[in-house]
Amino acid sequence: MALPPQDERTLPAVVLADLDRQPLDEALGAVQALLDQHGHLVVVSSQAVPHAVTRRLYTIRSLLESDRIALFHPPLPPLGLAVLARQLRQLATCDLSPGVLASAGRLLTHYIHCGALLGSVARLDRVPVGLTSHARSWVPGSQFGVVAHPEPQLVRIGPEAALTGPEFGTWMLVAPGQPPSDWVTATLAEQWGAQGLREVPSPAESATWWGTGKLVEFAAYLPDLSVLYQLVTSVRQGVCHWCGIDVIGDRCVFCSAVPPFHENQITAR
Description:
Layout: H1 24-38, E1 41-44, H2 51-64, E2 69-72, H3 78-91, H4 98-109, E3 113-118, H5 131-136, E4 144-149, E5 153-156, E6 171-175, H6 182-191, E7 197-199, H7 206-210, E8 215-221, H8 225-233, E9 237-239, E10 246-248
């Protein structure tokens, strides 16, 4: 999921591979070394990774007693998540504080449109699948266009098949596989008005996330660093009342604190 740099400024990714398989002391040492080198750490992981990986991440943060580690598990398919991680790597070159940079992940998630062309939806549980689509998935040669984020969509591929895409200019990233990716690279890219298209290898978690190995994953995203920076800096910033770090949004991504409730606040009932 570590995509190639978008440009020469994009910071390299650090991949915490086999985190749940290596001895705990080795994993602790690796993360501590990253903290010593960089000061803060934003860990972006897929919801499709084994539960043991997620438990190990929380264990490491707890044992290090660190409020400088942000753990982020957004509900994005693997390719969309890889795009988000690269966007954060782009923004890491700008004059953003660690808290604002980490908080930006939640904001930028809303601007990523991602899905897949699937040969079967029989085991798809990330997007609602009707009985008709489920039955048709057993018909040989059936293909389905699915959008998982920001709003679930599912259509059976045919002459009139269409998926609603972003209402702003984006590039499209495609991870080719089986079935052939022609519908994505030609039809869908045109429907969505993609300003450019690039291909990358399929992320390791894609088959698990989508419930099938017969897929072509795609993601539409904002590639321009200046646009990403403007989006992030246009949002009101605050200070976490618990750890004192700058944040955007209503929850600190490092210590998980939310703004304190005051008696004079009006609560909707």
